[in-house]
Every structure is written in C-alpha cells, then in structure tokens.
Amino acid sequence: MSHSCRYDQLVEQAGRGPDRICAVAHPCDETSLGAALEAGQRGLFQPILVGPEQRIRALAAEHGWSLEGLELVDVPHSHAAADAAVEQVLSGRAGLLMKGSLHTDELMQAVLSHQGGLRTERRISHVFIMDVPSYPELLFITDAAINIFPDLSVKADIVRNAIDLHVGLGLGAPRVAILSAVEQVNARLPSTIDAAALCKMADRGQIVGGVLDGPLALDNAISVDAARVKGIASPVAGRANVLVVPDLEAGNMLAKNLSFLSGAESAGIVLGARVPIILTSRADSSRSRLASCAVAALYADHLAAHQPVRA
Fold first, then answer.
1. CA 262 to CA 217: how far, in whole Å?
2. How deeply is 227 buried, as exposed, middle or buried, from its count of CB atoms within 10 A (0-12, 13-18, 19+)?
3. Which of 21, 203, 280, 297 could bridge to 14 as Cys pair (CB 3.0-4.6 Å)?
4. Which residues are within 8 A (CB) of 72 and not within 5 positions of it... i.e. 6 or more apart?
C-alpha cells in the first residue's frame, strides 16, 4: 500500500462504523477544536466539547466553524474539563476520550484518579502508529509517552496493549520486537534481560496474541539484511510490526527521528484504560490527528464487541 493511503484507509474504515461519542477535554485552541470537529464531520465520532463554553464558541466563530447540534459541557478551566470529560465516560455517555489544549499529565491525572477513574487491571501505555515511507507496513512504537522507566511487569502490559491494538484494528497477530542495543543477552544491559524474560513469558502463555523476539537491535528488527548478516533467524527479525523500546527516552527519540528525519507521520493512542484515549500534539499534521481519531474509534468498536479479558 502506498505511503499516502495507509492512514486514509483507517479513516475511511472508521467513518463507516457505528455511531460513537467522544468527550473532548478542553478544546480551547485551533488545533484541538479543529481536529475534534473534523473527526465529527468525517463520521469518526460525535464530539462532546468539555470546557469554558464562551471560549470554545468564540474560537469556533473566529474560524468560521459551526457548533450546531453539538453538546457543550461548560466548566471553568482545564482541570475541571479533564474531570468532567472523564465523568462523561464513567456515566456511559461517551466511549472515547480526547485530549484538547491541556497538558497530558493533567488529563491522565483525571483518568487515573482514585475517585472512580478509568483504571483497569492493565497498566496504561501509549502506542505511536507510525506511517514510515520506507517501511512496508504500519509500525507501532511503544511506550514513548507514558511510562518513563518501565519494569518487567509494566513492559508485559505494554506488550499486551500493543498486541490487542494490532489485532483490534484488523491487522492480525503482530510480530513484536523487544528492542535493546544488542541482540544477545548481556547482564550489564538490563533491557536485554527484560527482553529475554518477555519472550519466555510469551512461550508460557503469559503474553498471547503476537509473536515475540528479543533482544533485538533496531537494525535487526526492521532490516531483513541486517538480521541475515547477524545470523538471526526468527519470524520477527527484519519484519517487526511492533517495536517495544527499553524506556520512554529511547522511544521518544526513535519516534521523533522517524518523523523529522524520515518523513514519517505518527498517530497516537493511549491504551489500558476503560476506553481508548486520543493524544494529539500541536506538531502533528492534520492527517496524523485524524488518523489518531480513526485508530481510537476502530479500537473502541473492537473493545465493545469483544470485551477482552484483562490479563
């Protein structure tokens, strides 16, 4: 599939789905309000706009956008908007949550609050769904946004969340590469020990739904030639769909490297809560923001249909 078609196909597929409602927390800048309204126009979901109503209406008027037929929940500031948007999900009004112009930490604090937040037994994690021009398939990178230094149990949930998303989008069982700097287990590199343990957990049925291999260096994960030179024979090496990074810094650098040096586009979604959470950045293109909405919408349909058992 050509580079330009991958996200378009997701958006088209999501636009044909059932009616969905998304609570949008504090859409008080051009980027976030515009993305929510465009997603609504494309049939991805019906947004509920949660924030200071006068500010949202003034912003829409400034850009000539119609809010006709849309529900607005008037709250005074971003902190209240995060809480009220989560409440829309808890009450069953909304099946999706989207970040507006507030800090990610502020929204996630409301998501994780003990006063009936959106926690599940699964650890919350983020996945970048990257459309890289030089790679033949969509490439998932996780976790580059939520968990800073995940331990083994957190990494196991990060892997489970990514597998569930890949399957839930209809992309089949993913080939999951657990990344490190080298492809051999080295006691001085803790990420190699974690990688080996995750693969053994998959062997024992503690992680299901995907094929795991690791530790793998990045070149061995995505280049068949590099894997062949190193003598690595596995279903994953050179053909990974999911790249599991050792920590947030490595993941963040990898994702931004692909975006800014390789011309990749990146959609982003938070998994492991009761509903998918859409995180977009002001640096994202319009296509990337729409793709994030489409991915979340399609995955929400999957969760509603399958109600997967939380490991």
1. 19
2. buried
3. 297
4. 48, 49, 50, 53, 56, 57
Q: How many residues does the chain have?
A: 311
Domains of the chain (ranges; CATH) run 121-272 (3.40.718.10)
Whole-number Å distance between alpha carbons of 103 and 307: 30
Q: By the 8 A CB rule, do 166 and 241 touch?
A: yes
Question: What 3-state class would DSSP assign to 178?
Answer: strand
Mean pLDDT of 58-83: 96
Which residue type occupies 79? H
| Residue 25, both tokens | 């927390």
Helix (H, G, I), strand (E, B) or coil at 17: coil
- Pairing state between β 277-278 and 242-244: unpaired
Mean pLDDT of 31-48: 95
Q: Residue 127: enclosing H or E segment and its boundaries? A: strand 125-131
Which two structure tokens, joined as six digits, stand for 189? Answer: 């590199």
- Per residue in 239-255, pLDDT tens? 999 999 999 999 999 99
Q: Is the pTM of this model over 0.85?
A: yes
| Rounded-to-integer distance, Cα 110 and Cα 129, Å | 24
Closest CA to 157 of 195, 208, 123, 111: 123
What three-state secondary structure class fits 293?
helix
The distance in angstroms from the start CA to the end CA of the chain is 34
